[in-house]
Amino acid sequence: MLVYLTNFFIAWLAYFWRPKQQPCDSLTLPHIPGVDIISMTRQEVYNYSVAASPPYSLADIHNLNFCNVSLTLTHPGENDTVAVSVWLPLANWNGRFQATGGGGLAAGIIGLASARPVSQGYATAATDGGLTLNGTSNPQTGAWALRPDGSINTALLENFAHRSIYDMTIIGKTLTERFYGSPPKYSYWTGCSTGGRQGYFAAAKYPSLFDGILAGAPALNFPRLIGYMSWPPMHMFQSAAPPQCVFDTFLKAIIDKCDPLDGATDGLISDYNPQSCPFDPETLVGQMVPCPEMASDSPVTITAQHATLVKQILQGPELPDHPNLWTGLPPGASFRGTANTEVINGSIVRPVPFFPIIGWIKNFVFRDPSYNVFDMNLDDFDTVYRLTLDAYNGIFGSDDFTLSDFRRAGGKLLTWHGMADELIPASWTNAFWDRVDRKNGGDADEFYRVFLAPGLGHCSAGYGPNPVDPLGALVRWVEEGSPPDRLSAATVRADGAEVTRELCRYPATLVYDGHGDVNDAGSFSCRPREA
Ligand SMILES: *[C@@H]1O[C@H](CO)[C@@H](O)[C@H](O)[C@H]1NC(C)=O
Ligand SMILES: *[C@@H]1O[C@H](CO)[C@@H](O)[C@H](O)[C@H]1NC(C)=O
Ligand SMILES: *[C@@H]1O[C@H](CO)[C@@H](O)[C@H](O)[C@H]1NC(C)=O
Ligand SMILES: *[C@@H]1O[C@H](CO)[C@@H](O)[C@H](O)[C@H]1NC(C)=O
Ligand SMILES: *[C@@H]1O[C@H](CO)[C@@H](O)[C@H](O)[C@H]1NC(C)=O
Q1: Per residue in 448-492, pLDDT tens?
Q2: Which of 270, 298, 438, 494 has its CA 20 to 30 A from that of 399?
Q3: Any ligand 1 atom below 6 A from CB of 90
Q4: What is the pTM (predicted TM-score) of this model?
Q5: What is the DSSP string of 314-367?
Q6: Is 372 in the pocket of ligand 1 (CB under 6 A)?
Q7: What are the sequence ranges of the domains in the chain?
C-alpha cells in the first residue's frame, strides 16, 4: 500500500514539477562563448506550408505550427554577420534535434531546409554561415570569399568549412532545451552534397555534437572536386561545345553497353567500379542524331572531336605531372551536371559550367569578380587546380580524417551516394570509406556505412531508385542499436513502372539473381567484394 502511495506521490510531483514549455515569445539565450548575438526575434507561426522542393521537401508540406527563432551573431573581431534559424514544433516534439546543411557554396538554406524536420516532429536549425552577407548576396556567386578590400574573407571560409555547424548546433540545442524544458535526447545532422561534406566535417571536428549523421552524396575532397567540375567546361571553352542531344546519345550508348554487365538489363548500371564499363566513344563517330534544341531541322553528326571530348570527360582531369587526379564522369551519369551546354538563338552552343564553379574561380582563385571564366584555356585550368589545392586543401581537405574520435563518442555515420551522380562521383566516397576502414582496423562498419544507389543522380536527381527513409534507418541504428544492413530505395520511372532496390552496403554490389522481375528489389542480392 505504501509503495502505491509513494508511486502515486512521485507521479503527482513529476506532473506538477515537469519541465514546462516556455512561451515562444519569451525565449532567451544565455551567453555562448565565442559569439556575440546581434539580434534575435521569435514568434509563433501557424499553418505554414511549403511546396515540394527536392531535396529539402520531397512532397508538399502543410499546416506546420512552430516557434520561429531567428537570430544574427558575429564572431568578435571578425566582422561577420551570421543568420541562424531555429524552428521548434509547438506540439508533438519528438524529443530530437536536427541540424541541416547547405549545397554548392551555401552553408545552409534557411526556411526551406527546416520544413521537413518540423513536419516529422524535430526541433531543427539552419544557418547561412554569414555567406549571404547579411541577406544581401546569393552565396552561390562566391562573392562572400572576398572582403571589401579584395582579400580572402578567412572568417567566412572558416564558417563554411565547419564553424557554422558548431554555432548553429549549440544555439539550436540550447533553445530546444529552454523551450521544452529538457535537452534533446538525440541530435542528428542531415545534408546532401555540401551538406554531406559538412556532415563529415562535423564528425571529424566536433565528434560529440551529433549522435547520428546522415550525409548524402558528400562533396568530400572539395578542392579536387573543383578541378573535377571545371574540367569539362574548360575543354568546351577551347573546342566547339556540343548540344546536349549529342551527350544524351553518348549517355544512352554507355547505358546500353554497360547495363547488362551486372546480369540484369534493367537500365541501371549496378557495378560501382567505373573501370568495369568498357565503353569506347569512337564507336559513335559519324552517327546522326536528331536535335530538337537546334533551330535547323537537320540532325547533328557526331564527330571525332565529340568523341575525344567525351573520352576526356569520362577519364577526368589530369595535370602534366599528375595524371588522373580524379576519376571522370561515372558511367550512366548525365552530362548535364558538369558538361552542360545551352543553345542560344537556335544555333550557338555555349558551355554552362556548374554555377558555383564560376564563383569559385573568380573569387577564390583569381580574387577578381570581373575575371572572364569563359575565356579560360587549359593552362588556366592548371592554375585553377593548383591554386585551389595549394590554398584550400588545408581548410577543405578531408584526406586525413580518421573519424575515430566520432566513433569513440558513439556516433553513427550513414551515407548514400548515387552511382550515376552527375556532379560528385561516388567512387570518391568509396575511396574515403576504404581509407577510414583501414585506419579503423577493418571494422569501420560498426559506426560508418555507405550505400550505393544505381542510376541515382546527385542527391535526389537521376533515374534510379532513391533511398526512401535513410533518416529513419539512422535513427533506428542510433536509438535501437539496430544498424542498417540494406537501405530501401524506390522510384517511379517515366513509363509509370515502380522500381525498387534494397541497396547494398559498400563494398558489396547488387547482383541480379537471374530470374524474377528486374524492377523488383526481391530479384537482387548483395555480393561481397571479391578479394
Ligand atoms: C489553421 O488551419 C486550421 C484548419 O486548416 C484552422 O482551423 C485554424 O484556425 C488555422 N489557424 C490559424 C492560427 O490560422
Ligand atoms: C521567421 O522569422 C524571421 C524573422 O522575423 C522572418 O524573416 C521569417 O520570415 C520567419 N519565418 C516564417 C516561416 O514565418
Ligand atoms: C565589415 O563588413 C561590412 C559589411 O559586410 C563592410 O561594409 C565593412 O567594410 C566591413 N568592415 C571591415 C573593417 O572589414
Ligand atoms: C543587417 O541587415 C539588417 C537589415 O536587414 C540591418 O538592420 C542590420 O543593421 C544589418 N547588420 C549589419 C551588421 O550590417
Ligand atoms: C541572339 O539574338 C538576339 C536577337 O537577334 C541578339 O540580340 C543576341 O545578341 C543573340 N545572341 C547571341 C549570343 O548571339
Answers
A1: 999 999 999 999 889 999 999 999 999 999 999 999 999 999 999
A2: 270
A3: no
A4: 0.94
A5: HH---BTTBTTSS--SPTT--TTTTS-EEEETTTEEEE---HHHHHIIIIIIS-
A6: no
A7: 1-184, 195-220+398-531, 224-353
